[in-house]
Amino acid sequence: MSAETTEANCSKTRNPFTGVEADAVSVRVDGLSKKFGDLAVLRNISFDVKPGEIFVIMGPSGSGKSVLLRHIAGLEAPTSGTVAVDGLDPTLEETRDRVRLALVFQEGALFNSLSVYDNLALYPREHRSGNEMAISERVMHALKILSVEKSANQFPSELSGGMKKRVSIARALVMEPQLLLYDEPTSELDPVMGATISEIIATLKNEYSVTSIVVTHDRDLALTISNRVGILMAGKLISLGTPGELRKSQEPRIVDFLNPKIDIEHPRFKQLETPENP
Ligand SMILES: Nc1ncnc2c1ncn2[C@@H]1O[C@H](COP(=O)(O)OP(=O)(O)O)[C@@H](O)[C@H]1O
Ligand SMILES: [Mg+2]
């Protein structure tokens, strides 16, 4: 069964560490708009993500993808409209206590002064979840899932780009997330490592049934492992559908985004679309 024909059929998410099932979370974005000063970055965006789904948000640089993801993570509050994770406002402290949510940052956001092991142990230590032995089991298990257990004692500066991304995903797994948010997980990687990360995202979804929202401009990732794809341009959601529907789209902006032709007679940079000039 291909990803796109798979209904998000897992209503439960199984914790990769304990095997205990928890309710998978849904995400609802309703009429979300965000302004920074006069700059309208998100404009009236609405969509639903089902529990267990891999939902991809694609769009050009500067279209508002990271800002949208930060709203879902509760790191940013809407100017108008609402975001709900499992029906709850993600900016509230009590939501963070009830819903386990992890964000894999674009730049990895690992602490350079800490070893890989200590980077992963930070969250469970801070939340006093278990003694050192239990934490060690969790950390090593997460590193093993991502095949980076041999790097436990290395420092982030000693890792390749692909390993850093895998360690960042392992760190998110230690939080035992019900919702995993990825910001550009394959950017700056060679195509093979990009494909590897896509396989990891799909595997985590299949084995642990976590809800995944992936911001990317990696067309292969979007068209192969996602259940649905939303396209964001200049802060607007201009398309929402399955990978199959997206491939068939005749909308010129989507065709050009997915298969850009290099046209030196009519160069695009002369007619760039920006949030100020949609
Ligand atoms: N905290 C902020 N303050 C002001 N402008 C911001 C802030 N964060 C993002 N922006 C602007 O919002 C727009 C969208 O940014 P972003 O979501 O990072 O784009 P991308 O789609 O590349 O992830 C950009 O014009 C960016 O400069
Ligand atoms: Mg971004």
Largest sheet at a glance? 6 strands, mixed
Number of domains: 2
Distance between the termini: 39 Å
Give the overall average pLDDT: 86
Q: What structural class should be given to the helix and strand makeup?
A: alpha/beta
Output the radius of gyration: 19 Å
CATH architecture of the largest domain: 3-Layer(aba) Sandwich
Bound small-molecule species? adenosine-5'-diphosphate, magnesium ion
Determine the CATH topology of the largest domain. Answer: Rossmann fold
Approximate strand percentage: 15-25%
CATH superfamily of the largest domain: P-loop containing nucleotide triphosphate hydrolases
The oligomerization state is single chain
Describe this structure in words.
The protein has helices spanning 65-72, 93-98, 116-126, 132-145, 161-174, 191-208, 219-225, 243-248, 252-258; strands at residues 12-14, 21-23, 27-36, 39-49, 54-58, 80-85, 101-104, 179-183, 211-216, 228-233, 236-241. It has 278 residues and is α/β, with parallel strands linked by helices. It has two domains: 3-100 and 178-271, P-loop containing nucleotide triphosphate hydrolases (Rossmann fold, 3-Layer(aba) Sandwich), CATH 3.40.50.300; 111-175, no CATH class. The strands form three sheets. It has a six-stranded mixed β-sheet, with helices on both faces. A three-stranded antiparallel β-sheet has the order 4-3-6. A two-stranded antiparallel sheet has the order 1-2. It starts with 11 loop residues before the first strand and ends in a 20-residue tail after the last helix. Residues 1-11 have low confidence and may be disordered. Magnesium ion (MG) is lined by residues 65-66, 106, 183. Magnesium ion (MG) binds at residues 65-66, 106, 183.
